[in-house]
Amino acid sequence: MEKKLDHIGVAVRNLEDSITFYTNVLGGVLIDRYRSEAKGVESEIAIIDIQGDRTELLMPTNNTTSPIARFIKQKGKGVHHIAYDVGNLDEALEELEAHGIRTLEWSLRTNKHGRRLIYLNPADTEGTIIEYCDYPEK
């Protein structure tokens, strides 16, 4: 199954400062900003496009329950996850199962942009948080 880099998720402490850096210094364009209180997200999110490549800036909205807050507390701010567009998430999940790779089932959802996504279990990915996603409406 073909996979293509979709975006990189970056955990940040201050969304305003991060947006300023990504737009003024890196020349990106802010294409969306929204708040998600979905379980496993609980963040304010800014999507930056830099010449066709996307970065999601993730700032926790709940320092007690947000996984982004836990990530920052444990590892500090920085790259949180790498997302791959797999074309067909259902087929990709079957492929993962065949390889013995587990997912974080609670993370399966569709976001406001119609992207279906799930996170792979970092215990099976050498510690890297990897998101698989697809866009069924495309």
TrEMBL record:
Keywords: Metal-binding
Record bears the keyword Metal-binding: yes
GO molecular function: metal ion binding; methylmalonyl-CoA epimerase activity
VOC domain ranges (all copies): 4-135
Keyword Metal-binding: yes
PANTHER family found in the cross-reference section: METHYLMALONYL-COA EPIMERASE, METHYLMALONYL-COA EPIMERASE, MITOCHONDRIAL
Protein's UniProt name: Methylmalonyl-CoA/ethylmalonyl-CoA epimerase
